């Protein structure tokens, strides 16, 4: 039995402030197990509990000369442990939120990319369907849908009747619609 085992907490604190490593070792021996039991009961991971308790003692040693404790080292250690556990749980919660957010963002990016690829594929199919239309029908469709001209403007430009433009558009839209319906059925 060393002489330090007989010292009160107050005496050990005085010696600790004087940077006595044996006083620190005695405080460590007295309270390590108690703190570890409490920490391991509060946390699900014994390794994390050990790390937290170790950090508390490391902080005490680093701040030994400036630490302001009277005779209540046990109360100080309990408060430090409580703070460290709360801080650890907070960091876990923040990390989990980040993981959840990352997964959600990844899924959204995947679906955005998937939607983009489907859109591009559908656009390609539509362009192919348009190229399969008869020449005049194709021209009327492009002037209407791609250039945004009205039937009257198309009729003037092509020197044909509005009813003819309407007939070409109707024919084009029917063929495109039936072609797209077939493609959509294949997708889904």
Automatic annotation (TrEMBL):
<keyword id="KW-0731">Sigma factor</keyword>
<dbReference type="InterPro" id="IPR014284">
    <property type="entry name" value="RNA_pol_sigma-70_dom"/>
</dbReference>
<dbReference type="InterPro" id="IPR036388">
    <property type="entry name" value="WH-like_DNA-bd_sf"/>
</dbReference>
<keyword id="KW-0240">DNA-directed RNA polymerase</keyword>
<dbReference type="GO" id="GO:0000428">
    <property type="term" value="C:DNA-directed RNA polymerase complex"/>
</dbReference>
<dbReference type="Pfam" id="PF08281">
    <property type="entry name" value="Sigma70_r4_2"/>
</dbReference>
<dbReference type="InterPro" id="IPR013325">
    <property type="entry name" value="RNA_pol_sigma_r2"/>
</dbReference>
<dbReference type="InterPro" id="IPR039425">
    <property type="entry name" value="RNA_pol_sigma-70-like"/>
</dbReference>
<comment type="similarity">
    <text>Belongs to the sigma-70 factor family. ECF subfamily.</text>
</comment>
<keyword id="KW-0804">Transcription</keyword>
<dbReference type="InterPro" id="IPR013324">
    <property type="entry name" value="RNA_pol_sigma_r3/r4-like"/>
</dbReference>
<dbReference type="InterPro" id="IPR013249">
    <property type="entry name" value="RNA_pol_sigma70_r4_t2"/>
</dbReference>
<protein>
    <submittedName>
        <fullName>DNA-directed RNA polymerase sigma-70 factor</fullName>
    </submittedName>
</protein>
<feature type="domain" description="RNA polymerase sigma factor 70 region 4 type 2">
    <location>
        <begin position="125"/>
        <end position="176"/>
    </location>
</feature>
<dbReference type="InterPro" id="IPR000792">
    <property type="entry name" value="Tscrpt_reg_LuxR_C"/>
</dbReference>
<keyword id="KW-0805">Transcription regulation</keyword>
<dbReference type="InterPro" id="IPR014327">
    <property type="entry name" value="RNA_pol_sigma70_bacteroid"/>
</dbReference>
